[in-house]
Design goal:
35% of the residues lie in helices and 15% in strands. It is built from nine helices and 14 strands. The strands form four sheets. A seven-stranded mixed β-sheet has the order 2-10-9-8-5-3-4, with helices on both faces. A three-stranded antiparallel β-sheet has the order 11-12-14. The protein has a two-stranded parallel ribbon with strand order 1-13. The longest helix has 21 residues, at 256-276.
């Protein structure tokens, strides 16, 4: 058995994959695959609507928010957010706590004047207390990334904005814990970490923030245009949305977002406890209160590359793959998304302990 600890595209629930396999060539006795159907036909439109309803149900999304399915990934939303929201004042606040929020901040410079609410650190290992943030009262929104996939930094609080719309990239911890959607102006997330394959991005946006797009905004990135057309103004990634809807149904059968939150805490704590008890053999550079439950980066003996290479090779030989850290930070990274089970995590934990004990001798 192979256990895939990839940061994304990531492991999908085996139950869902089997359902998809069974329906691949003949969906619901239509004689066709979902991949062959018109995106404007009644069969696909029901899948599209069901996915939106399930997303609303799982996250308890209020009625005054639109749910959109768009393409272009999180990187596309770095630009789309600016083009749809920044035109109000030409300014926006950005909290840069890792590699992805830094990319979003750099993208924003093309469309207006983004303000760093605290200086960019040399290394991304913590989140400054909000008492140190310097917010611009003229900002169109405050942007942050809830969980930094590369660096393993996750927020344990929702920033206070004093009434300015809050925009959040939740790509790598989407549906892994409950959120009060009403505190946000906009949430976006690529599906490929926790809720589906790569190819669709979910946007949850408050209705009063729609309709003010810059003139340069392409129609496929204009939230008003996408909302008016129920996310089928052009051909959507139909097969991906179908699988995502299957994952939503799987989530409902497994105690929903609340169930995933309990599992995420249990899984991540198991690995962090092993790191903390290893007498410095394993180390995680992230401030303990902001350590991610989803993406757990660690080094061996302070970054001994030979030992880390050996660790990765031995892990792969027994079926644990894609544990290598992001190229920009090195080391090892275990991504414990929703589809990673407790058993999967215990297998990794057992190997980590055995590898540590073998090097003590």
């Amino acid at each position: 058995m192979v256990i895939n600890f990839a940061a994304g595209p990531a492991k999908l629930p085996e139950e869902v994959l089997k359902e998809v396999q069974q329906e691949l060539t003949n969906y619901n006795n239509t004689g066709m695959s979902i991949m062959e159907m018109s995106h404007r036909g009644s069969v696909y439109l029901k899948i599209n609507d069901d996915a939106m309803k399930s997303c609303r149900e799982l996250l308890k999304v209020p009625d005054n928010y639109k749910i959109l399915f768009m393409q272009g990934g999180g990187t596309g939303q770095f630009a789309a957010v600016c083009m749809n929201l920044m035109g109000k004042t030409g300014n926006a606040d950005y909290a840069v706590t890792g590699s992805w929020s830094l990319k979003a901040y750099k993208e924003a410079q093309k469309y207006g004047t983004p303000n760093l609410v605290f200086p960019k650190p040399e290394k991304f290992t913590t989140i400054p207390p909000q008492s140190e943030w310097k917010l611009n009262p003229n900002a169109s929104y405050l942007y942050y990334c809830d969980n930094e996939t590369v660096d393993g930094v996750e927020f344990n609080f929702v920033p206070e904005t004093n009434g300015i719309p809050l925009v959040c990239d939740m790509s790598s911890n989407f549906m892994s814990r409950s959120v009060d959607v009403s505190k946000f102006g906009l949430i976006f997330a690529g599906a490929q970490k926790n809720v589906g394959p790569a190819g669709v991005t979910i946007i949850i946006v408050r209705e009063d923030l729609i309709g003010n797009a810059m003139k340069i905004t392409p129609s496929v990135f204009d939230y008003m245009d996408v909302a008016k057309n129920n996310s089928v103004s052009n051909t959507p990634p139909t097969f991906i949305i179908y699988i995502m809807n299957r994952v939503f149904e799987w989530l409902k059968r497994n105690d929903g977002v609340e169930g995933m939150s309990k599992l995420a805490q249990k899984k991540s704590q198991l690995i962090y406890d092993t790191i903390n008890k290893s007498n410095g053999f394993y180390t995680c550079p992230v401030d303990e209160q902001y350590r991610s439950r989803m993406n757990l980066p660690f080094r061996i003996c302070g970054g001994d590359e030979a030992l880390e290479k050996e660790f990765l090779q031995k892990a792969e030989k027994i079926g644990m793959v894609q544990l290598k850290g992001h190229r920009s930070v090195g080391g090892i990274r275990a991504s414990l998304y929703n589809a990673i089970s407790i058993d999967n995590t215990e297998t990794l934990n057992k190997f980590m302990n055995e590898f540590y004990e073998s090097k003590k001798l």
